[in-house]
């Protein structure tokens, strides 16, 4: 709940701090007295909400499960949402009033919305009254800071937790994690003298406690130590109780009673444990550690006595497991499919001989096991429930089809929600809102770092910290924190090692979406369990059956994301105009050819994604979207933007590009978009792709000093000096793509200054004199390099060999010579190499010791190269080779006499571009999906 208040309070602060009140007061004279009351009321409300936020943060952990407290929180949430509506309505009216397209239109809006202005103070008064009632209710029902009541404690003491059952699990019931248990056993039996801290890390429900208990109860291990103890730390540990429990397990009961340690202070307990362990070899397990501060005082208690003692920690948090010796860390993964099947059958068919799945249930069991995605907690819990359903196929099918509902309502599955929600409830307010937002995406959706960051920022969920730090960088920090807490998993990194793509475990997503819907944060329509969209939902994601929502209208919506690409454009046009206060509109892959007419009336809009659609034109009325931060028009038919785009001074990311050649083997593989007018006012712009160069634009780019990523096409030599002068004014530029105007344009880069922070450089066009300019010697951070049609006369490989940072290299038609040589020691970090369309190339020499980390090699259109490079046999790390349009002789030798050269390469694929469907499906669709996000395969530029 505190997360809803967090978002609202940020909006209130922004509305009071931007100086907009003065500006609007001069423009709308009729509203000026109302604005004074508005500001006063907002400041009063802000103060009350700050106190409520602090109170909730203080008592939330104590009151978990308290129904009265939960009902009161629902009331607080409703009040917070009402305040948010007032603030956003104010912002809407403000922006509309400042739409100065004409004097008469401005006056029309002032008269039209005067009633709405008058309602603002009334609504604030009503909110103030509701806040006062919340305080009265809190007192009336005894919701206060203090100890949990006796009944609540008694109820907890009578219940076994999932951790208890995991500890009690017998080794015969454990499936998977055999290697991890064996490694732990070896570490615990090591004879080194230093005290060793070992950690088991992973998301909730993976079996960390089960693995730890397996080694803890191993008699061979126990006999190795003089004493041992197991304590569950948990999120709400009390230091004194933890120390007493450890001491209680270490010494005899009689001695513990005599020592009087039940009344000792924390410091005295630490000293007592120190003294007891001073000359002993001990083994202590700290299960479920959430806070590294817990280790700070335990570190003093556990004596470092050179007796070979061991401490084992289980945790969901990376900052905790980092306390351990780096070589003594185990990160648990989900079970593979075979292990998941075995574990499920053990639980579901325990009464059947051999735990064999009946044939009539095989397909359903496969679906259930798939749904659990290797999470032991879910496999065990669902398997136990279904074991009571007999072998009736209908009952099993009904249960599976209602699994989402079961997770939310079946008390027997509450363990899954409880364990997974522990991580959610441990999040601070700002992270909790961001994580709830992640549940909007469909099952198995790849969450792209850049996309989710833009969405969070547009929704106002990201702090603006100043000091030169962008909100995108803050959002990236949030993502790192969510991965460190085992809530998101990184599945792909870019060439610099930064996480690029994340995924949320499907059951974590289900549980999180249940919470999001319950708290009115968001609703996902299109999966089992959701039929109609709540009127109070703040965010809506429609995954399928969009047109079943015939009466969809919600003035509360802040995000509307549509994944259903089958819905007719008439439906989209109809609903898009209904969401007055919308901040995020996602229409990617939808079937539209024109911009929905109501979009330009969404004055609060921050994020608009209409990529992968057939939209051809952006209307001049886009000038109304004064708050717009992100405009994504990639893979559309837009070739020119209106002049009015240059007035959107809050734009941070502008993407306009169509792909004409999926294989990127031509100079016109992308479209170049024209931007008329002066772009100097777009000072917040950080990424711009792709823009057509002209004499004025290249000089204006120098004003965009926050630019980090730029694609500019149709570049002529006469623009180069001014263009480069502008680029040097962008200190954080890390991605630069430059295309010459045509194949005959010669670019002279010889006298240019380096760009120190460049990480990706793609240069398409002929180089002056066929010589590589010396500027390439200064790109010290470059990780990705692509050169197309450069017309180089000298082997360029040696010129780049010193670049130790290079990870990906593409040479497409860049070299006119016959030989390329890769010498020993060159390109130590290179992971992928692409060589294409070099007409005269006949041989590639590869010495032993070069490219020692290469994973991917692609040779394309080298029609005079008839010999397989023999040096490929030295690259033992090579995992994939792709050959497209290569000579018949080379292909035959690869399959015959030279097969021994590539026998260590597990994946070799040979294509001919005369079969473009095969090439695109295997190479280019996955490449585009990795670059632009999942779902890209729905787009075909030929249609």
UniProtKB/TrEMBL annotation:
Residues 23-101 form the Disease resistance N-terminal domain. One of its GO terms (biological process) is defense response to bacterium. Residues 180-349 form the NB-ARC domain. Keywords: Coiled coil, Leucine-rich repeat, Nucleotide-binding, Plant defense, Repeat. InterPro entries: Apaf_helical, Disease_R_plants, LRR_dom_sf, LRR_R13L4/SHOC2-like, NB-ARC, P-loop_NTPase, RX-like_CC, Rx_N. The keyword NADP does not apply. The keyword RNA-binding does not apply. SUPFAM superfamilies: L domain-like (SSF52058), P-loop containing nucleoside triphosphate hydrolases (SSF52540). Residues 440-510 form the Disease resistance protein winged helix domain. Residues 556-863 form the Disease resistance R13L4/SHOC-2-like LRR domain. It holds the Pfam family NB-ARC. GO terms for molecular function: ADP binding. Belongs to the disease resistance NB-LRR family. This is Disease resistance protein RPM1. It comes from Zea mays. The lineage of its organism: Eukaryota, Viridiplantae, Streptophyta, Embryophyta, Tracheophyta.
